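PT: before anyone asks, these are the final sequences, not the draft ones from last week. 431 residues across everything. Please model them as a single complex and drop the result in this thread when it's through.
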Amino acid sequence: MSEHAGDNGNGFEPKIVAYVCNWCTYLGADLAGTNRLAYPPNVRIIRLPCTGRIDFNLIIKAFEMKADAVLVSGCHPGDCHYTAGNYHARRRWMLFRELLETMGIDMNRIHFTWISAAEGRKFQQIITEITEKTRQMGPYMDYRKVCEAS
Amino acid sequence: MIQDELRQLCRRLLEDGTVQVVIGYGQSSDDGPTYPVFVTDAADVDRLVWNDQCFANLTTYLKRKEVKALGKPAIIVKGCDERALAVLEKESQIDRTQMVVIGVACEGVGQPREPKCAACDVHMPRFSDHVLGQAANTPVEADRRYADLEAFMKRSPAERMAYWMNELSRCFKCYACRATCPMCYCERCIVDKNRPQAIDTSPTLKGNFAWHIARAFHLAGRCVGCDECTRVCPAGIDLRLLNMSLAKAAEDEFGYRAGVDREAEPIIGSYSLKDKESFIR
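LR: through. Structure below.
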């Protein structure tokens, strides 16, 4: 494990799922790579065509598969490759967050960001930050209990 | 009496061939439950009843193939049910020129009254073709509409999670909530699709969470709050709270209430450059 993924004594390594859009955040991650900006290997990047394509079921699916945090990221407003996908997504997440609040889902484990193709450093910072924060919070036991109950 | 007027009107509509079927409420005994009836013959209009036991939101039957096959319908709605028609019309699911809507003034249903009736501001139908009875529509402050949700949200997130884990553990996936919902009209529901399987179909807590989150969210900005899902739930799960949280968000953020303004643009499927994004970094 690299120094960024060093454990906190109890051996817990958070698993983070990042749903990213193909045109901005994925390229931002790519830029972080080509610039050799190291970020924690705890993140699993899943590329989708557009934030507008990121179905809310995918967020639930990530928790079902024992993710400890989820990141959803795409193009800044005005930058969408498909003109308005991120605007539709923004409105949807806004409402979806309210539903998750009511369900009692831990909102500290769901992150939304805009990261452009030029923001390799922002990608590095966000991933590092989320990994650190999640490591401190520990595994997401609530949803694991949901998944393990018969 | 409203019931007599209703029967008279429906007899006339069936006799002169304006409609081929009346979708209304029936009841087999005076204190028994009501159920939906589909009257196709003017001689049968006495099967129709109207009283405070008429809970069902009949607009859900408009989407059924077997009902469509009966011909042009007349449908009996309360003020709250009528809101569903407004949404369905906006979503191009119904053609109002191809049906007759009979609105009935309603003072509330159930003994004691259903929770939704406490904050009702549509006792009187507003855009039906015929309106029977008289009732006053008095505005209701928004916080009264969401009082139960606000009380629930005073609990901590962990308590809310524990509440839903307990409630949803009783769900056995009968999908009555889906069947009774006028807004659930997809030819094939996402939960029935298995390539890929987006939602676990097993009636375990895992599958139940996925299902109820999906069900509620597919109604975001569309649910009219008829509370039929909650009423028909055989496990007695208070699904109202989930629907309310989205309705409240829609009202708080966009000043939008589904089915209240017939002309208003739906909030899902549209966007504004000014949408809030304080939660996005």
